[in-house]
Each structure stands twice: as structure tokens, then as C-alpha cells.
Amino acid sequence: MSRRRFVAGVAGLAGAAASGVMARVARAAAPSDYDYIIVGAGTAGLPAAIFASARGARVLLLDAAGDIGGTLHLSTGQMSAAGTRLQASLGIVDTPQLHYDDVMRISRNTADPILTRIAVDEAAKTFDWLMERGFAPLPEHPVLGKGHEPYSRKRYYWGAEGGRSILAVLRREFERERAAGRIDLRLQTPVSALLTDSAGAVRGVRVKSADREQVFSARHVLLTCGGYGSNAEMFERLSGYRAYAATGYPYSQGAGIELAVAVGGYVRGRQNYLSNFGSILTDDAIPGRFLARFVVIPQERQPWEVFVNARGERFIREDEPSVDAREHSLLAQPDLRYWIVFDEAILSSAPPGVGGWTREQMRETFGVHKWFQQADDLATLARNSGIDPDGLQRTVADFNRGVARGKDALGRTYLPKPIVKPPFYAIRHQGHSTTATVGIAVDDRLRVIRQDGMPIPNLYAAGELLGAGQTQGRSFVGGMMVTPALSFGRILGERLPLAART
Ligand SMILES: Cc1cc2nc3c(=O)[nH]c(=O)nc-3n(C[C@H](O)[C@H](O)[C@H](O)COP(=O)(O)OP(=O)(O)OC[C@H]3O[C@@H](n4cnc5c(N)ncnc54)[C@H](O)[C@@H]3O)c2cc1C
Hints:
Blueprint: H1 3-9, H2 18-24, E1 25-28, E2 34-39, H3 45-54, E3 59-62, E4 79-80, H4 85-89, H5 96-106, H6 113-132, E5 156-157, H7 163-179, E6 183-186, E7 191-196, E8 202-209, E9 212-223, H8 232-239, H9 255-262, E10 267-268, E11 280-281, E12 290-292, E13 306-308, H10 323-331, E14 337-343, H11 344-349, H12 359-365, E15 372-375, H13 378-385, H14 389-405, E16 424-430, E17 439-440, E18 447-449, E19 455-461, H15 482-495
Parallel strand pairs: 1-9, 2-3, 2-9, 3-6, 9-19
Antiparallel strand pairs: 4-5, 7-8, 8-9, 10-17, 11-12, 13-14, 14-16, 15-16, 18-19
Helix pairs in contact: 3-7, 3-15, 5-6, 6-15, 13-14
The structure holds flavin-adenine dinucleotide.
Residues 39-45, 62-65, 70-72, 74-78, 190-191, 224-226, 247-249, 251-253, 255, 434-435, 463-465, 479-482, 485 line the site of flavin-adenine dinucleotide.
């Protein structure tokens, strides 16, 4: 295709008047400039670039940020993979089928069967490759996990530096491929539109860097530009819940959703929204910042306190062993909010509840941080905290009767003390989710599809852009975002056809 035809072909350019766009174009590359344009140099984009370059592809890798790595800079980096060489060396018998069954059991069959199948089938190859290249999981790994619903086999691994342990390996491999001269990396270069021809096929991208715009073309365009966890407006619009806390990568602005929708893609997965079981944030701002978290996992610390919602009602037995059950119970509470309520006897005798804090730190925070309230009676405590006073008094009285009888109304078995001795305390918790539940629909070859199921030619997507719920459903399943992002990126780098070289 000649440059003139290419320029004419981008008349279908999404979201802009083509003539205006072309007037601002500094340089239009010929369509065969690159085999791959990869939008986003993060968890999915880096393996895509590495594996594509390794088989001789010419790659343009674009990122809005000033460094590669994306969410791996922040992520806990927990991966899950079944049938790995590490498992075999430890005598752990595991298969992708068992992994698949666990994901479906934990998610109650809400994960997407096609994408989940690919993710579990490809996970061991990805993990073994990382290990070969120097990734070191913690010495006791793999484990079953306890921060999310445990797996049935030990297949859960992460490194000492979380996501950065993975990034260190990817960065090394990436720099090696880059030195071979096939990867053109451009940082601080956000993609602002996809270029399509008159038939609707994606031919390239438009980027904005410093003060100029450029267009580039390629045979394949991969969207690996992450989720929308840091875009509060999009978060609320797509998930139906407010973005209560800003804990995501700042560049997770949902660009991929806008890019793909503008050329005919569509979003799915709203029904999968799930919140974690809450954090203490620094203040009332929305989105807020993470401050601390009470240890609510009974396997780590048994509960002495009660959890109440804004009506002052308990909504789950506090020693509920299932993480997933706790998370789902919070979804039904107003504003995904609850308070942990206790008294002086509990504060002075229970192990300190706020993770990593001493009892003295907790005491010093009451009356200083708005979410830590203290009062000599329950009604005042409730009013100052934002809880219904009658509801709280009723609930605590009921709870205390249960403690006296040794039989709790919600079935809780750990009942060390009633809540009777002033002062009384309440610590507010806010449920939130870091990741983007909703994502762009793709088929079993990771091609972005239209509502009618037809792929948009040349356009692919991987990573959180597909929606967190695709490989975990309406649940949090250990490692089922990082590992699929890495694997899907790798697959796209390995498998898309390259132009014949002359
Ligand atoms: C705190 C935290 C902890 C987590 N822990 C885990 C965990 O333990 N296990 C797990 O499985 N999952 C975890 N996750 C989720 C997981 O880390 C992410 O889903 C995954 O890393 C996202 O990978 P990605 O490639 O889709 O996006 P990213 O890794 O974020 O990469 C996207 C890249 O695209 C770039 N970009 C954005 N817009 C543009 C644009 N317009 N043009 C060009 N580039 C652009 C960004 O700068 C970024 O570099 C966690 C997430 C967070 C935030």
C-alpha cells in the first residue's frame, strides 16, 4: 500500500475528523514499518515484545509512562501455575485441569471458560520460562494461599519484591532483545487513537509525544495498556461502584477501552464486580489513599470485635473462614463500608488488630484520625462514627447475650469477651477494588471482537484490559491476573504471522 493510499485509508480514524488529524500528522509511516505495534509496556506488553522480537519481528513498543513495567511496579506479583517444573521437583502433582477446576469452584463458574482454559494451559510454560531466566520465588513456595480463597494444590508463587521480581527478569530479557535492534521503544508516548482503513481493519496508531502527533502502522496492533483502576469516572461508569481508593498504577486510565470501543469493540463483565474486604484510608477523599488494614483473616488472628454496617447491624460471622464469603457479604452493605467495634477490655487484652501496628499506635490514633472513634457510650460512638445509634446498641446487646450463652446468632464460634467496658471504639473500613472488572471482549485468539462476534482485523488485546473478571469471575482467584497477562502477552508475541522478508 502506498503512503497516499494509507493516508486515505485512515479516513475511518476513530474519534477525530480525519482531515484535521492528518493536517497535524508529522510523519506517516508506510504500513510495513512494523510487524507489531504494542500499546503498553507492562505485564502483558513486555512478554509480547520479547517473544515477538525473539523470532525476528520488528516491534514498536509505546508507553505513556516514563519507564517500562506498568503495574508490575506496584503489584504483589502473585502468580499461579499448574504443572511447573518447580512443582515436579517438589513432588507436587498438579495439572492445568485441576487449576481450571479450582478457578471455576472459587468463582462459582463465573470466570470465562475459554480465556480461563487458555490461561491455565499456558501458565506453566510462562512460569518455567521466568524461572529459567532467573526468577526466584520465595523459598517456601509454592503455597496454597490465604489472602484469597486457597487453592486445592500448591501452585501459588511470588518473589521477594512482588511484581518487581517479575519485572527484573522481563527488563533483562527486554533489554537483550532491544539490543538486537528489533524493538523500537518510545516512552512518554501515549496512543490516542487507532487508525482503520475503509474496511474497518486496524492499520496503525496515532500517538502524542511532547508537542507533536505522529502515526505509525503495523500488521498487528496489540492493546496491552492495562485497566482503568486510576480513572475514577470510568471506574464508576463501568463497574457501577465508586472508586473509593486509588491504589492502582497511575497510567491505568482505561485508554485501551476507549481505543477499542472507538473502532467497534465492546465491553463486558460488569456483573463480576467484587470489592476486597476493606481498608482504612487516610481520609474521606474519594478516591482515598490506603493507610492500614485490620487483620480480618481468622486463620491469622481470631476476631474479638464485631463488624457492623451503617445500620449498626452485623452482616457476617466475624470468624467466617472463607475470604470469598467475607468479600461477598460486604457487597451488600451500604457504600461498601463497615466498622469494627470493640471496647477497652478487648483493646487491652486482644492482639493488636491493625496489621503491623502496636496497641499504643492504635490508642494514639483514636480521636486523631476521623475513622478511629472513641466514646464513653455506644450511642455517642455510633453518632460520631456515622452508624445508626439504636442499631448499634441493639446489635451489641444481642452479641453480648450470645457471648454469655456461648451461642452466637450468626454462628460465630470464637467469643472471648462481651463488649461492655468503656471507652468503646470503632474503626471504619472501606471496601474497594484496585483492578478493572470490566474489559474489552476478545475471542479465543485474543482478537478484539464486535458485538456480533466478528473480529476487528489486526487488533488484539491482553492483560487487565480484558477485565479482571474474565479469568477470575466474580471472585479474587490467586495469581489469575498477573499470570494470564504474562501468558497472553507471550502467546501474542509468539504466534501472530510475520510478513515474508525479502
Ligand atoms: C497493588 C496491586 C496488586 C496486585 N497484585 C496482584 C497479584 O498479586 N496477582 C495478580 O494476579 N494480580 C495482581 N494485581 C493485578 C495485576 O498486577 C494487573 O492486572 C496486571 O499487572 C496488569 O497488567 P497489564 O499488562 O494489563 O497492565 P500494566 O502492567 O499496567 O501495563 C499497561 C501499560 O500501558 C501503559 N499505557 C496506559 N495507557 C497508555 C496509552 N494510552 N498509550 C501507551 N501506553 C499506555 C501504562 O503506562 C502501562 O505501562 C495487582 C494490582 C495492583 C494494582
